[in-house]
Amino acid sequence: MVKGMGENIDRTIEVESKMKPEFTSKYNNIDSDMSSCKIHVSNPIVKKYAGDVISIINNGNTDITGDINTATTLVQSIGDIEETDKTIEDDTLNLTKGIPTSKLKDADESFFQPPENIVKGKDGKNYYVFQDGDNTYKYNIQDKKFYVNDKEFGGIIHICIPEGVSDYSKLNTITMLNGKEKNGQSEHNATVQNRAETFEGNSIVISFENGDMTFNPSNGNADNVAAITKLVNHAANTDLSKCQNIITGGSRLGAKSLRIAAQTGDVYQTVICVNNAAIVKGVTGRGYVKEAFMNFEELQGLNGKNIYFVSTKKDDNIDSYWIKNSDKEMAGSNDITKCYVYTGIELLTEYCPDSQICFISNYDNPVFADIEAPNYMYRPDLWKVFTNDSENKYDQHHYYKNILRDFCATLGGLK
To answer: What would the pLDDT profile of 301-344 be if each residue is shown by its tens digit?
Structure first.
């Protein structure tokens, strides 16, 4: 808005960025013309009687020039805004920018900085030691084991880094909770063990080889999971003003990742739940035992975080299977608004108003687009951003394993 000609009115200048050069040029020409438009009276007798006229004209000239200068400045500022706009991408994810993927490998000693934090243990092996408050955390670099106050936690924990990266501070850190296959092999062994040949990424990936350890209340509590993330941040000197700590898991560990993110303060900025949901005990979790928040207060620990639900189109949590078969009150119902994903999203939009909640799926059901909340987005278009499912083959629940694998390559570091 600019004030015009000394009048008490507002004027709005509307101009598209493509018009900027034309308008800037015209305003500059007018400004030049106005600067040369002055009234001079040399005859003292005429000047004596023409003073008021000269004053009025010259003051008007000044007002016009001021307005033109203001308009010119505003139009020129479009250029600055336009340049800034070029640097702003679709920030819905704020996760997938800039850094190309490369083969992942287990972190060697060069990753762990500063080097003076590496100490030799009584067993002759090197440990990276990190002190946080009253707790001492140690990571056995050779054996891939993590210790909290000298007590082992989590079994084998791989810290995987992309090859060819020299500055790890610019990479996101993905803490990936992994489950077990029916044959006893862990999800990590099933899909990541041959990572040097087949697995790529552009983030630091923390992978729990024995995923079930994260369920043990005495040995797998949320604080210990967060501790390994903080140790990695310390070793990588992660710039969390530009990067994110992401926690994710599939199936029951997807729900577990939600609770860990809620229970550990600001350690995780983003949580991604694959093929599961936010369930509150006694509210949306009736009739079936699933990983659930104990109450609304615990659920509110997610407030302020980026929360993503990623579901395959035939996953049990987004159809009415569990409801029809496990909840007597809803037996036989096909009401999709009663499914776990839908009801969980509704609760989060209410109890976590400062969060950004996003649902991504290859399940095309308009009911999810109809959820009305300022902090919720339905983005099926991001399915192929999050996954490598170009042929739309990920349909059943067990494909969460493929999605977790894809995340390592898509949730890249921020610039």
So the answer is: 999 999 999 999 989 888 755 555 555 555 555 678 888 999 99
Q: Work out the burial of residue 173: count CB atoms within 10 Å of its CB; fewer than 13 is exposed, 13-18 middle, 19 or more buried.
A: buried
Our CA angle for 176, 178, 184, nearest 5°, is 160
Closest CA to 291 of 319, 337, 250: 250
Paired residues of 186 in beta bridges: 180
Name the pTM for this structure.
0.74
For strands 270-274 and 306-311, give the pairing.
parallel
**In whole angstroms, what is the distance from residue 121 CA to residue 125 CA?**
5
374-383 LR contacts (CB < 8 Å, sep 24+): 375/349, 376/345, 376/349, 377/92, 379/92, 382/92, 382/93, 382/358
The residue written with tokens 């500063």 in the block is 114
How far is 326 from 303, CA to CA, in rounded Å?
Answer: 30
Cα-Cα-Cα-Cα torsion 311, 313, 315, 318, nearest 10 degrees, comes to: 80
The residues, any chain, with a CB within 8 Å of residue 259's CB and separated by 6 or more, are 222, 291, 293, 298
Do the Cβ atoms of 304 and 268 come closer than 8 Å?
no
